[in-house]
């Protein structure tokens, strides 16, 4: 699933490619991805509108359309956009095609068809699930003080599940949680209340650093993620623990370990990230 850096890369590319364009028409092929309208109604509602702005909240992409309407998109597991300056035929996994005045087009492709599209009137946008998330780690409002407050409210919760919970922080997923905890030298099974103030500061800084570094490198691609031109990211070549089980820690040489938390593979260095003195329930 694309995480915050991948979605941020997509949003930045969308701003360069389609911001300011007027939608001439839409063909929706995977109509089950539509949440509150059918394909015909969706095409009628968005055709003729201009894409005025494109923003991100967590892993949600928000297209601000003219006429006080917003299109909310979530890529889910395998969704991606492909932009073309000319008309191209839909591929086998194309779920929707947005046609723009001037001849360019934006294809939404999704192998597993889990992506979602929902239209909102501006006055109802606050009901969107995108606005029921915790703070965004890349937002200026996400300060060390706010992060500390979040941890204090969840003192008995293990730190990895806490970071993965979108109600606490928006956009963090499995990859970047493992990477941030490694950089901060914090074991994923430690509880929030067990962290010292200097560890909280180090984790706060590590979260921002690993997200920004991934964005600069175009995100992480293991299988499906591509940018709007079909290019892969390369942050997977710079991961320090994630999917490096049985490889050597680049910091101390210890073999990277793997366990399962919340049903997800969790990677860490048992030397750099000392385990808690007991296993929290």
Strand-residue proportion: 15-25%
Report the biggest beta sheet as strand number plus sense, adding barrel if it closes.
4 strands, antiparallel
Catalogue the unreliable spans.
Answer: none
* Annotation field: number of helices: 6
- Give me the side-by-side strand order of the main sheet: 1-6-7-5
Category from helices, strands and their pairing: alpha+beta
- Total number of beta strands: 10
Task: Describe the model.
The chain has 281 residues and is an alpha+beta fold. The protein is 24% helix and 21% strand. β3 and β4 form a beta hairpin. The relative contact order is 0.14.
Brief digest:
The protein has 281 residues and is an alpha+beta fold. Helices cover 24% and strands 21% of the residues.
Topology:
Blueprint: H1 4-17, E1 23-28, H2 39-46, E2 51-57, E3 60-65, E4 69-74, E5 79-84, E6 94-100, E7 105-110, E8 116-121, H3 144-153, H4 159-164, H5 174-183, H6 197-216, E9 257-261, E10 264-268
Descriptive keywords:
single chain; alpha+beta; four-stranded antiparallel β-sheet; 281 residues; elongated
